[in-house]
Design goal:
single chain, alpha/beta, 6-stranded antiparallel beta sheet, Rossmann fold
Length: 334
């Protein structure tokens, strides 16, 4: 048997598996692969396996074991059921043996950062909301945090590479990907491969402002959760530029199961969003952080407004999409 190739990490029922344990399973009881949890793409002897939610990029469908082009089974980990708080604590603990936490100062990343107790990194243009809020959160929680200030010139320089890398090349996806690009750059330059993030919390717990107005909240949450696979593809592609990958505790099987058992009406009500997550967070971090309402990362970091400014500077006063399309044309020599 050839040595297995693994991107990411693997666990079974809360126990992390090292390379020797994984190889032993593949040799003696390969059917155990179907129980693998974690965030992984695993290849060996003509076979490949990707994690249940497809968080880690790789060939083949998410959550499938494929050998010599034939589907052999569905990867569907079934760890012990647990309440939301225990699920979140467990999910973060499993990911906290290495890596850096991407901290913006909002509830999603602040809770993860506190539970992980690892070094954090925050990025943004000078004077941006996220840099200020991340500093406040890190100081309040007693966490070590690096603050990476990014300039307009750096955003302009990164833009062609980011646009070439991401699947959907529109202004919102470009703004998010650019912000993650600078997080990944800092991580790569400082020797980190794993970037622990708060992605998925908005879709699981009802974090978007539009959820306050909708009459179809349950359906909206389902639709947006289904869209996370595409977001992961975008984010992992950008992180891979610096040899890193994103790890997402809120998309742990335990957390997803516990969160989806909570009625949508308990997640968003009385003008408040993400109520179950904030209620858990209050037990670990101060109330002002647990209930803080924050802008999306592309706005809070100042990257999106800078992108708009660059579009105007380059003659695209009304359409950022036209500016992005022009970058694509230039990159492809048209």
């Amino acid at each position: 048997m050839t040595t297995p190739s693994l991107t990411g990490w693997i666990e079974i029922d809360g126990k992390l598996l090292g390379p020797d344990a994984i190889e032993a399973i593949l040799r003696t009881s390969p059917e155990q692969v179907l129980r693998f949890g974690g965030e992984f793409f695993l290849k060996w002897d003509g076979c490949s396996a990707r994690d249940h939610f497809g968080i880690m990029e790789g060939t083949g469908q998410k959550g499938m074991l494929i050998c010599n082009g034939e589907m052999k089974g569905e990867i569907n980990p079934a760890p012990m059921e647990m309440p939301l708080e225990e699920a979140i604590v467990t999910a973060v603990k499993l990911r906290s043996d290495e890596g850096v936490v991407a901290l913006s100062g909002g509830i999603d990343s602040a809770l993860v950062a506190y539970l992980a107790q690892r070094e954090c990194v925050a990025v943004g243009v000078e004077g941006s909301h996220d840099l200020k809020q991340a500093r406040h959160a890190a100081e309040t929680l007693g966490l070590s945090c690096a603050y990476a200030t990014i300039t307009e010139d750096e955003i302009a320089s990164a833009l062609p590479e980011v646009v070439a890398t991401i699947p959907k090349k529109d202004p919102v996806n470009t703004g998010i990907a650019l912000t993650l690009y600078f997080i990944a750059r800092w991580a790569g330059e400082h020797g980190y491969h794993r970037i622990i993030t708060g992605q998925g919390a908005d879709e699981l717990f009802g974090g978007y402002t539009r959820y306050l107005e909708t009459s179809t909240l349950e359906a909206d949450l389902e639709r947006d959760f289904a869209g996370l696979e595409g977001q992961a593809r975008r984010d992992q592609a950008v992180a891979a530029l610096y040899g890193a990958y994103l790890s997402m505790p809120y998309l742990d099987t335990r957390v997803v199961r516990a969160a989806r058992a909570i009625p949508a009406t308990e997640k968003v009500k009385d003008g408040r969003r993400k109520i179950p997550l904030r209620t858990v967070a209050e037990r670990y971090i101060p109330q002002d952080l647990a209930w803080y309402e924050k802008k999306a990362m592309q706005y809070g970091s100042g990257v999106y407004p800078t992108l708009r400014k660059l579009a105007r500077k380059n003659g695209y006063k009304t359409s950022m999409q036209d500016y992005i399309d022009q970058i694509i044309r230039v990159e492809h020599g048209h």
